[in-house]
Amino acid sequence: MLNIEKYGAVDIGSNAIRLLIVTVVEQKGKDTLFKKTSLVRVPIRLGAEVFLDGKISESNSKRMVDAMTAFRLLMSTHGIKRFRACATSAMREASNGTRIADKIEKESGISINIIDGKDEAAIIASTDLKTLIQDDKVFLYVDVGGGSTEITVFANGHSLVSKSFKVGTVRLIEGLVDDGVWDDMEEWIKKETKIFQKVSMIGSGGNINTIFKKSGKKLGKPLSYLYLSSYYKQIKAMSFEERITELDMNPDRADVVVPATRIYLSAMKWSKSKNVFVPKIGLSDGIIKSLYNEKIAAELEVN
């Protein structure tokens, strides 16, 4: 007998807002299946104004309310049993972030959890990331967003140390990352990985997913440093318009993919990683897994 439920996850990032709907299939005596049913992405680039002006504008506030109202209706149509909405660096740094969150809850019925970098890393770590983290290998996990980059070192099958850096694609486009922040990230990565002979990287985020998809590699196979370096030179030499027309990128991806690739390449260079694995997981996936884990924990308490 199968128990089938649908869960929803809303990820309010600095570059876009996403709704992920997952069908959770519980099978007696077997592993639970998580099937991605729908993904809706709205490119409301909150970070572009928050990182410059310190607040969310009225026009984007209205767009967020409209998006959340639409998401709520979609979740109702899908028959969602559990859902959670999380916001990262843009709303966290906005002076009116809490007020906007209250407005969204009042008008759409969706309560937003504004989380910090450590919470974000912990949520992502609850995904199927653990299936990649082998006991005999060392991994540098790098999640690149619009406002920040979360980095975690995994060894012996466990997370050793994590840190969030204010180096993100939208910040870089707006010229809001000084050399000191880059230096701090370089120093931290080198310090935390120098004791290991071999480090492989795991990359997450929409940009590395796009790069992986265009590479034609089979899922589970890594991208090499040489490939990523060559790709970076290619896209950096192209204009914004050429990336859209010749590489078939969406406009809101065609600009951020360049700084994102720079971040991934820098992390690989500083950790001496020769390969990057791309499992296509992110905050939304982590929210779904967290909701399911909470359900299981509650059932155990009742029993």
TrEMBL record:
Residues 40-291 form the Ppx/GppA phosphatase N-terminal domain. It comes from Aequorivita ciconiae. This is Exopolyphosphatase. Pfam families: Ppx-GppA (PF02541). SUPFAM superfamilies: Actin-like ATPase domain. The lineage of its organism: Bacteria, Pseudomonadati, Bacteroidota, Flavobacteriia, Flavobacteriales. InterPro entries: ATPase_NBD, GppA/Ppx_hydrolase, Ppx_GppA_N. GO terms for molecular function: pyrophosphatase activity.
